[in-house]
Design goal:
Layout: E1 7-13, E2 28-37, E3 42-45, E4 53-56, H1 64-69, E5 78-83, E6 104-114, H2 126-146, H3 150-175
Antiparallel strand pairs: 1-5, 2-3, 2-4, 2-6, 5-6
């Protein structure tokens, strides 16, 4: 992908013809992924939660490999990438799950691309999504201690996400006059 062999992409499923790619206008990517070490040990996955990960390209909030690969993908595409540590977490790694100097493998599916939503009540940034991801990881750890199954926890998180989305939409509708087109030109 990058020309120096540090990131290699294998397409597992091509996107449909006419599918959108990330661009200057559509720079927010919604991705499902599974991250593993070379020995197959899984260190992270959005599929376990059932909630895709959202990333804003160009903000350097994800590893270099993702910044290199996502612009080459189209919505619906499924690929596997392998990256050297220089495009991952470097010599420091990300303890305890990712050792220093580790090459990483990701299976990635680009679910959607979009621009940012405008307005203080509906803005969602990559930083917000990273914070939410960390909250979900903590919930997952707590649920494993509390005895809830992964399926029960995923159902609960989906219900929470639906409620949060409904609240954002309700706030958006109130802000613009109830969604009846008032103020539109």
């Amino acid at each position: 992908v990058n020309g120096d062999g540090g990131v290699v992409k294998y397409t597992l499923r091509a996107a449909f013809e006419g599918a959108e790619s990330p661009s200057k206008e559509l720079y927010v990517c919604v991705v499902h992924y599974v991250g593993t070490l070379e020995d197959g040990t899984q260190f992270d996955s959005s599929r376990d939660d059932g909630l895709p990960f959202t990333v804003e390209l160009g903000k350097h909030r994800v590893i270099k490999a993702w910044e290199a690969v996502l612009p080459t993908m189209k919505v619906g595409e499924l690929c596997r990438i392998k990256c050297t540590s220089a495009y991952g977490y470097g010599d420091a790694g990300s303890p305890p799950d990712i050792p220093g100097g580790a090459s990483l493998i990701f299976e990635m599916e680009l679910m959607a691309v979009r621009s940012m939503l405008k307005g203080p009540d509906v803005d969602t940034t990559a930083a917000d999504d990273l914070k939410r991801l960390e909250e979900l990881r903590i919930q997952r750890e707590e649920s494993s201690l509390s005895g809830l199954s992964a399926r029960e926890e995923a159902i609960k998180r989906k219900e929470d996400a639906k409620a949060a989305a409904a609240a954002r939409l309700a706030n958006k509708g109130q802000k613009k006059g109830g969604g009846k087109g008032k103020g539109k030109k």
